[in-house]
Amino acid sequence: MGVILILGSERFLAGQAVRDATAAPDLDLARFDADAKLGAVLDELRTPSLLGGRRVAVVDPADALVQGDALAVLADYADAPVPDTLLILVTSSVDGRTKVGKRLKSASSVIDCKAPSAREMPRWISDQGREVHGLQIGVDAAGTLYQRVGDDLGLLDSALRRLKEQIAPRTRLEPRDIASSTAAHRSPILYETASALEERDLSRALGSLSAAFHEGVRVNQDVVADAAGVAPILLGHLHRTWVKLLRFHLLRREESPEDAARSVGVSPRATRFFLKKVQRWPMQELLERHKCFLEADLELKGGAPAGPQPVLEKLLLGLLA
Fold first, then answer.
1. CATH code for 121-184?
2. 206-225: per-residue pLDDT in tens?
């Protein structure tokens, strides 16, 4: 028990880490969100459980609590936590350059939830399939699944779960299983919207966006139809596309165009088309317009009074106009 720091921006891995840490049956679990006050969180841990279980407090996200005065209080608490309790903090990072940040990290159990790179993704798929789903997945099958689904770890995990059901009682996943499965296809609307963004085609991007909100987005075999559910899926997919363009430019400084494209997850047969698209995007412009994603994310989290679709339309205008 004590304090667990779950660090990194990969939400699927963070969620998995929280589930693993809170899997015991005898826990008295309390959850706090971004508005949590540190005093209330610590009071929760210091109050004896009425249910008799071990007190566990999860703060997700905890970014506001790992800076300023609160960080020092947390470091003091981590040095002497309430016995037989657990505090789990989910945050993008803790500044280890400061003395108090170093104290908190050294007194806590740290779980790194950094997203795997494109080169690491097949290994992650193989490990996830084996450790979580009991599947044997070779390099070829993992690469095929990555090309079909993309780099969203949540969608990949969902695809693995469905593929396991489809090939049962077999446990070895082959490329042919993936090629013939409806569980391993990314949404056509998501692909179309991302492709329009890469090609700087505002009209097509807005049309695909409108279709997504009217028809819903297919996530494996399910369709997410409500606007509140569609918006974060679209935002995440567009942001991953943007980051892929940025990473290509960074890698291009030291690698050939073909190697850089492969490093960001572009298949060999699609490389020629991708290189034509990326020429439309100077790196400086990608950096300057990246802030549009943060603005859209904040608007969606703020409730988006006019609805989520106008927020995403404004995002596309900011990126492509």
1. 1.10.8.60
2. 988 888 888 788 765 567 77
For 226, phi then psi, to 5°, come to -75, 145
Coil/strand/helix, residue 54: strand
Spatial contact of 190 and 219, defined as CB atoms under 8 Å apart: no
CATH of 188-320, one of 3.10.180.10, 1.10.340.30, 1.20.272.10, 3.40.1160.10: 1.20.272.10
Please give the Cα distance from 162 to 166 (Å, whole number): 6
**Predicted model pTM:** 0.60
Using DSSP's 3-state secondary structure scheme, residue 137 falls into: strand
Of the candidates 38, 2, 4, 36, the one whose C-alpha atom is nearest the C-alpha of residue 20 is 4
Please name which of 254, 230, 267, 255 lies closest in space to residue 151, comparing C-alpha atoms.
267
Residue ranges per structural domain of the chain: 2-112, 121-184, 188-320
Closest by Cα among 272, 267, 274 to 249: 274
Q: CA neighbours within 13 Å on the CB side: how many for 202?
A: 9
The amino acid occupying position 134 is: G
User: Residue 215: which of 204, 205, 224 has the closest Cα?
Assistant: 224
| Residue type for position 133 | H
User: What is the rounded distance in angstroms from the CA atom of residue 2 to the CA atom of residue 109?
Assistant: 8
> Apex CA 213: angle with CA 209 and CA 217, to 5°?
90
The helix/strand/coil state of 219 is strand
Q: What is the pLDDT of residues 108-125, one digit of tens each?
A: 999 999 889 888 999 999
Specify the CATH class of 2-112 in words. Answer: alpha beta
Digit-coded pLDDT (tens) for 251-276: 998 999 999 988 888 877 678 888 98
3-state secondary structure of 30: strand
User: Which DSSP string corresponds to 104-129?
Assistant: HHHHSEEEE-PPPPTTTHHHHHHHHH
